[in-house]
Design goal:
The chain folds into three domains: about 60 residues; about 100 residues, no CATH class; about 100 residues, VSR Endonuclease (Endonuclease, Chain A), CATH 3.40.960. Helix content is about 45%, strand content about 15%. The strands form three sheets. It has a four-stranded mixed beta sheet, with helices on both faces. A three-stranded antiparallel beta sheet has the order 1-3-2, with helices on both faces. This is DUF559 domain-containing protein. It comes from Psychromicrobium lacuslunae.
């Protein structure tokens, strides 16, 4: 249980409130045991912190701060393209100070608030990845986001929310689709192919895209299955590109160049 308390504290940036521990099923007795073992320190005000937690974050938590924006998205285990260099924090008062990016909130922080903060704060692709994962993972509904983005000042939020595809299955798939759609291609995701299953992306009805975050195959069986799928695509006239995290994130222009060439070859 001590390791669980430490895990929860780390998940909250190094400092967790007693109420948050109780909601996770941790008893007061277990909290006292963790303090006695030196796993966490207890601060008056109901905050339990890892010994190496920054003092400014402990003070911020005591003053009512919570993780916000992309930091809260990471805590919720949503897809995050670029982990923040600074912690993002939300609070409903002006008593919070520290070397973080602060977002104002007038309600108790919830995942919906955090996703909306991401939509306002982050670059478009980073924001889309987080918002889309909140829907794809079943943590929020698309309707919740649409309703929350009403209002004359939220046009940019609505534009990003309109790009969300609830059927997305991975961060890389979202990135690839975003790049392709912005380049003017028609993209179908999770396209079912009889006899094989689903193709990650089908571009302009002629080119398949399979996204792969792994640089190697975990087993001989996985390698054989991958080769079978690739052969199936070729035999059935669907040339397919396999793309990696490095290509999509660090060489997006090269990815689009490969797609352009492949589609031109498909149409000859």
């Amino acid at each position: 249980m001590e390791s669980r308390i430490q895990e929860l504290a780390e998940l909250h940036g190094g400092a967790v409130r007693r109420a948050e521990l109780r909601r996770a099923g941790i008893s007061d007795w277990s909290m006292r045991q963790a303090v006695a073992a030196g796993v966490v320190w207890h601060f008056p005000g109901g905050v339990y912190a890892c010994p190496d937690a920054p003092s400014w974050w402990v003070r911020a938590r005591l003053a009512g701060a919570d993780l916000g924006c992309v930091s809260a998205a990471m805590k919720a285990r949503l897809w995050v393209l670029n982990p923040p260099r600074q912690m993002h924090v939300t609070a409903s008062n002006n008593r919070v100070r520290g070397p973080f990016i602060q977002h104002r909130s007038y309600a108790k922080t919830a995942l919906l608030d955090s996703v909306l903060q991401c939509l306002r704060c982050l670059p478009e692709l980073d924001a889309l990845v987080i918002a889309e994962s909140s829907v794809a993972l079943g943590k929020l509904s698309l309707q919740q986001l649409r309703l929350a983005a009403k209002g004359p000042r939220n046009g940019n939020l609505r534009r990003i929310i309109a790009k969300i595809n609830p059927a997305a299955e991975s961060l890389l798939e979202t990135i690839a689709r975003y790049l392709l759609e912005n380049a003017g291609y028609q993209v179908q995701i999770q396209k079912y192919l009889p006899g094989l299953g689903r193709l990650d992306l089908l571009v302009d009805g002629v080119l398949g895209i399979e996204v792969d975050g792994r640089e190697y195959h975990s087993s001989a069986e996985a390698f054989s299955e991958d080769r079978r799928r690739s052969n199936f695509y070729v035999v059935h006239g669907i040339p397919t590109l396999r793309v990696t995290y490095h290509l999509l994130v660090h060489q997006p222009e090269e990815f689009l160049r490969l797609v352009q060439i492949a589609i031109l070859n498909c149409r000859r």
